[in-house]
Amino acid sequence: MSDATTTDLYEVTMAMSYLREGMTGPATFSLFVRDMPPGRGFLVAAGLESSLDFLSGFRVDAEDVDSFASALHRPPRDLAPLLGMEFTGQVRAVPEGGIVLAGEPLLEVAAPLPEAQLVETYILNQVNHQTTIASKAARCVLAAAGHPVVDFSLRRTHGPQAGFQAARLSAMVGFAGTSNVAAATAEGLSAVGTMAHSYIEAFGTEEAAFRAFARSHPGPVTLLVDTYDTEEGVRIAARVLRDLDRGPGSAVRLDSGDLGALAQTARAILDAAGLPDVRIIASGGLDEYAVDELVRSGAPIDVYAVGTRVGVSADAPFLDSAYKMVEYDGRPVMKLSSAKVTAPGPKQVFRRPGFADVIGLHDEQPPGAGVPLLETVMQNGSRTVERPTLDDSGERFAADLAGLPPAARRIQAPLAPRATISGQLTVLADQVRHRIEDEVLASFANLRNHERSATGSQRSQPR
Fold it and tell me: Is residue 56 a contact partner of residue 381, using CB atoms and an 8 Å limit?
């Protein structure tokens, strides 16, 4: 069974119906975020690379057909039209690391309708989760104001794959390392880690634990000092580090309590012991809000280790993302339902200085100094560009971040820029809306009138 079955059932039922009806014309679907989540001034595009990997290898095999048939309680022969389906379409997208705004397409898929429909769920899953996490991590980097930030999220993320993605994406936006060994090895990241409280508790005293750890690990070490009494733990750590001449590169970690006040105390103890090079690492329920507060308070913390709240984006754990058809067989389409109106036609986003973005049609000329954001990254089911490195994506993020208005970069109460709609797209939307009102909604009204007339006639018949 392949990843083709990682889909919602209704994608299968729709694809089957399309095939039986001969509806295999080209369709374009646009993936976008309707509204910015609370506390966000921008989003960092992510999830594209895993989506392209999925599309490149997408093929419905016999085992997949059997799975679909089982889910639908139908014989496999009924699902046979799906057998051998591959993704043969095009993808245009904002490359990973690019900053996007609400309403802007992160990617557009153009493919035969059954193909474009069947891949919806997987792509939404990847882009939604990874963009959520990348955006949260980016705010931590902003909050740290130049201090290193490291990822400690694996044990609390929603599964190992989510933990791997958190490590990768946090590195993309500027984290200095991760505790995730698998991600560090696969992605070439710096692996970081200290010790747990259980390690301290396993020994008779903190000093015995610190000395044993130092014997096992030559070179700089990081000692966890808050198992019992934090201030005393720092004093013991300072004595051990000084005795073993392990000062430069070593650190103490604070994981609980009033981190700002404890950091001040720890710094004073370390400096008095002649260990000005020993760093202070803070962890324990941190996110961008806590980091921002600590930095603003002047706490002498050198490294921030963030975990749970960032790995699950606790304050905004999802995006109101959508994957909507905007054109079928050359006919622009749109949705008119309340609060979820969509814009028709394949699109492009044109970025102007100050993030004065314009959402327009994909083939219109850029307005003024506008630079198109969506690039063709897949054609005929194959990648058209090399996979970017994390450094490439990080450079793109840094360049976009540098142009972001200060109000959007704020940690507290950020103000997100709003993209505007081009004149050509506005005209097309009005045309399509009027066509729907004339052809579809008018037919509904005629049907209701006919039903009322028929009901009235029945009531007037003698009994």
Answer: yes
Give the CA radius of gyration of the chain.
Answer: 28
> Which of 214, 231, 301 has its CA nearest to residue 269?
231
Rounded mean pLDDT of 45-59?
Answer: 98
Q: What is the DSSP string of 236-305?
A: HHHHHHHHTT--TT-EEEE-SS-HHHHHHHHHHHHHHTT-TT-EEEE-SS--HHHHHHHHHHT----EEE
Residue with tokens 């814009």: 343
**Calpha distance 209→196 (Å, rounded):** 11
Judged against a pLDDT cut of 90, whether residue 395 lies above it is answered with yes
For residue 279, count other CB atoms closer than 10 A to its CB.
Answer: 21
Q: Which amino acid is at 80?
A: A
User: Do residues 350 and 367 lie in contact, with contact meaning Cβ atoms separated by under 8 Å?
Assistant: yes
Q: Strands 149-151, 105-112: parallel, antiparallel or unpaired by DSSP? A: unpaired
User: How distant, in Å, are the alpha carbons of 73, 116, 312, 407, 449 from that of 21?
Assistant: 21, 16, 42, 51, 30
Kind of pairing between the strands at 375-379 and 90-93 = antiparallel
C-alpha dihedral sign at 169, 173, 178, 182: positive
List pLDDT tens digits, range 115-171.
999 999 999 999 999 999 999 999 999 999 999 999 999 999 999 999 999 999 999
DSSP E strand boundaries for 113-234: 149-151, 177-178, 222-224
Closest CA to 47 of 5, 93, 7, 4: 93
The pLDDT of residue 462 is above 50: no
**Do 374 and 385 meet the contact criterion of CB atoms below 8 Å apart?**
no
pLDDT of the residue at 445:
63
Per-residue pLDDT, 456: 57
CA distances from 332 to 126, 344, 345, 346, 361 (A): 26, 5, 5, 8, 11
Residue with the two structure tokens 């201090």: 147
